[in-house]
Write a structure and sequence with these properties.
The complex is a heterodimer of chains A (190) and B (71). In chain A, helix 3 crosses helix 7 and helix 5 packs across helix 8. Chain A has nine helices and no strands. By secondary structure, chain A is an all-alpha fold. Chain A has two domains: 71 residues, Orthogonal Bundle (Rna Polymerase Sigma Factor, Chain: A); 102 residues, Arc Repressor Mutant, subunit A, CATH 1.10.10. Helix content of chain B is 73%, strand content 0%. Chain B is elongated, with a radius of gyration of 21 Å. Classes of the chains: A mainly alpha (190), B mainly alpha (71). At the A-B interface, helix 1, helix 2, helix 3, helix 5 and helix 6 of A face helix 1, helix 2 and helix 3 of B.
């Protein structure tokens, strides 16, 4: 059993890292969170029932650790950053701008929506697994992912912004136009 | 996070029923955006999952594994 526990833990680490990034929005804080959660899991491994959902158990530990850490040091590490690897391989300057804009928008989502979106899209978890890992109803998990997608669509397409006033600064209207053009090229269906 | 949680929890109960049963089956303009979003999120964050395990974390797990095997 110990061998199985440790191999399951190692196999899950990439997913835990993504979940930690969804929660913290900060690479260094995410690494610390994963390390702390792993230490907690190792200490509590006798409480895990073999044959039950290890990923959900581990995700809950990481989530609880995040919440308790947040309570202790509220917002002291609220420095958002984005994975730099993606920008290195982005084909064009326009691609990098779109990715940066998406990354900033993702970081603006409520944490529970971002977490659920990452779990479904990046980790390929089912809504049932998201619900088990985050301690919510399946319908709530669906709702969070649905609202995250629609919110990102609204932000990225500028749908939630009031129409510029006639006396609004030209620069803002120009920025909106540039953004729509970028997204229009990157996302032909928009 | 607590404020975010509380804000969205209020909406959760009200909007649970409004969420489509199968949002994983994109169709129409929203579906096209969802496919685009799926691809761009992977482009943005896949590098995170491919990074090697930090040595101190690997050592922590390995040490516990050896301790358990002995004990």
């Amino acid at each position: 059993m110990p061998n199985e526990f440790h191999s399951q833990l190692v196999a899950l680490l990439p997913r835990l890292r993504v979940q930690a990034l969804a929660l913290t929005r900060n690479r260094a804080a995410a690494e610390d969170l994963v390390q702390d959660a792993v230490a907690n899991a190792l200490a509590a491994q006798d409480s895990f029932t073999p044959g039950t959902n290890f990923a959900a158990w581990m995700h809950r530990i990481l989530r609880n650790r995040f919440i308790s850490t947040l309570r202790k040091q509220r917002d002291t590490t609220d420095i958002e950053d984005l994975p730099q690897g993606a920008f290195a391989v982005a084909a064009t300057h326009e691609d990098r701008l779109v990715l940066k804009e998406l990354g900033r928008a993702v970081n603006k989502l409520p944490v529970d929506q971002r977490e659920a979106l990452f779990m479904v899209v990046l980790q390929g978890l089912s809504y049932e697994e998201v619900a088990a890992a985050t301690g919510c109803a399946v319908g709530t998990a669906k709702s969070r992912v649905f609202r995250a997608r629609r919110q990102l669509q609204a932000w990225l397409m500028g749908e939630d912004r009031p129409a510029p006033r006639s006396d609004a600064p030209r620069a803002e209207a120009s920025r909106d136009k540039d953004r729509s053009a970028r997204l229009g090229e990157a996302f032909p269906g928009a | 996070m607590d404020e975010d949680k509380e804000r969205s929890r209020d909406k959760d109960s009200a909007e649970e029923e409004a969420a489509p049963a199968q949002p994983e089956r994109p169709s129409g303009p929203e579906g096209a955006f969802d496919v685009w979003l799926h691809d761009r999120l992977h482009q943005l964050y896949d590098s995170v999952t491919k990074e090697p395990i930090p040595p101190e974390l690997a050592a922590l797990i390995e040490a516990d594994k050896r301790k358990r095997e002995k004990g």
